[in-house]
Each structure stands twice: as C-alpha cells, then as structure tokens.
C-alpha cells in the first residue's frame, strides 16, 4: 500500500507532466501554427518594394528630404526597442519649446503659416512609432512632395486620398495616412 506522501508525489508528477506537455508543447505549437496561418500579420505586416522589405505598416520611420512625406516626430528616434512617449506634461517648458521649434521648422519647410501646422506635426504619438499622420498634415506636405517628384499636386493629393485609412470599425479613432505606404505610392508614380 502506498503512503500518502507517495500518492501525493505521483499526483504532483502527473500534473507536472500534463501541464508541461500542454503549456510547453501544445500551446506554443498552436500559437506558431496560428501565426503562420495569418502570414504577414504575424510578422509585423512588412511592406516590400521590388522584393525587398522596406518597412512595416505598423511602425513609423523617419523620412528626410523634399521628395518624401514626413512622419510625426518621435520621442525615441523611431527606435522600436525604446517605444515610449517623452512623458513630458503639457505645461513642461522643454515640451513647449520643442513644439514651438517644430512649428517654425515645419512652417518654413512647407512654406506655410505657423498656425496652419497641424498638431501631429508638432507632437510625438504615445508610442513614438505611429505610422500614420493626419490628412491635414499630409495635405500640407502635398505641394512640396509633388514639386520634388515632378508630379502634379492633384496626382499627389489623389495618392494621399487613396492612402487614407478610415477609423477602425468605422467609428474608433480618426482617419490617418500611412506615411510609408504613401511614400511608396509616390515613388511608384514618379517612375
């Protein structure tokens, strides 16, 4: 006859074995199979141009030069490993100075009035990696991008409209323009 200690030990070992198989083999395998079934959605939705990955639909990145639409500012220089806001409050003097500096720079670069610069051109998103800009910020940049790429302003504005995503489920959030997708479309149209 088995002692209570031996029975409890065997029961514990059986539970350990079953949970190890379920949580250490079955569950990870199920997640892996689901990820493969969702293809690029599980891999960060990479965008490719001519067979080469140029970025992700989900992560913002920096674009410099007159030929590109520019992203929102990033509190972490678009570093996906350091995804975070600046944590500066709305009355912080450093944040207010940075906003005014950005306002002057964007207004000068876009040849626009400082009060025409939208808020998303001045402030970073909560993650610092938002891939979208507002329709207003995209339209502010349209003339410059059209001229730099030898396209008409109407062509570029049409590309902006085509690259605009509506609110999630039609009512959550606001419409936005994915900067990477838009820059790829502009590059393709300029060829």
Task: Outline the secondary-structure elements.
Layout: H1 4-37, E1 46-49, E2 52-56, H2 93-110, E3 132-133, H3 135-149, H4 153-162, E4 164-165, E5 176-178, H5 179-190
Antiparallel strand pairs: 1-2, 3-5, 4-5
Helix pairs in contact: 3-4
Subunit structure: The system is composed of three essential subunits: KdpA, KdpB and KdpC.
Family: Belongs to the KdpC family.
Organism: Nocardioides dubius
- Overall residue-averaged pLDDT value: 89
Tell me, briefly, the overall form. elongated
Integer count of domains:
2
Tell me the distance between the termini. 84 Å
Total number of strands: 5
The biggest sheet, with number of strands, parallel, antiparallel or mixed sense and barrel status, is: 3 strands, antiparallel
Largest sheet, order of strands side by side?
Answer: 3-5-4
Percentage of residues assigned to helices:
40-55%
The secondary-structure element order is HEEHEHHEEH
Number of helices: 5
Poorly predicted residue ranges:
none
Question: What class would the helix/strand composition place it in?
Answer: mainly alpha
User: What is the alpha-carbon Rg in Å?
Assistant: 25 Å
């Amino acid at each position: 006859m088995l002692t209570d200690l031996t029975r409890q030990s065997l029961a514990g070992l059986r539970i350990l074995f079953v949970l190890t198989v379920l949580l250490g083999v079955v569950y990870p395998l199920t997640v892996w199979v689901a990820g493969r079934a969702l293809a690029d959605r599980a891999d960060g939705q990479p965008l490719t141009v001519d067979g080469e990955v140029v970025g992700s639909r989900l992560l913002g990145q920096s674009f410099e030069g007159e030929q590109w639409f520019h992203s929102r500012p990033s509190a972490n220089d678009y570093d996906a490993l350091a995804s975070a806001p600046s944590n500066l409050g709305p009355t912080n003097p450093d944040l207010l100075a940075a906003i005014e500096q950005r306002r002057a720079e964007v207004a000068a670069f876009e040849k626009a009035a400082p009060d025409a610069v939208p808020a998303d051109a001045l402030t970073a998103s909560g993650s610092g990696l938002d891939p979208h800009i507002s329709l207003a910020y995209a339209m502010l940049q349209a003339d410059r991008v059209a001229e730099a790429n030898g396209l008409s302003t109407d062509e570029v504005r049409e590309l902006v409209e085509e690259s605009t995503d509506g609110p999630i489920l039609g009512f959550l959030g606001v419409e936005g323009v994915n900067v990477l997708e838009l820059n790829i479309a502009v590059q393709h149209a300029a060829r």
